[in-house]
Amino acid sequence: MNSLDKFTPYALAALRIIAAYVFFIHGTDKVFGFPQLFGAQPLGSLFGIAGIMEVIGGALIILGLFTRPVAFILSGQMAVAYFYQHVGMNGNLLFPILNGGEPPVLYTFIFLLLVFAGPGAWALDNKRK
Fold it and tell me: Is the pTM of this model over 0.85?
């Protein structure tokens, strides 16, 4: 057993919280227009629906509440975003750096990790059990 293994739950929690916070901020921009990258989008549009999912899902993942099912949904959302928005715009599947798709690819796999590994330490899911 590696001496660092005892820190795995805390490292996983840090990854969960920081990734979800950045994801949440993407949502607040789309829903509330803050901090003003895209600005507020119509809530019935694809961007608006994505923003709602990012705000609610991001908040739940930050808290570590319903982590596995929420991460599963958000992983799927990001996979769809990559193929629909990024690959669909220029047809470049293999080089996310060329189609601007690095964030959705990373979110897809970070959230997928949370589906299988769970929330780690500092999660409300741990209190629910």
Answer: yes
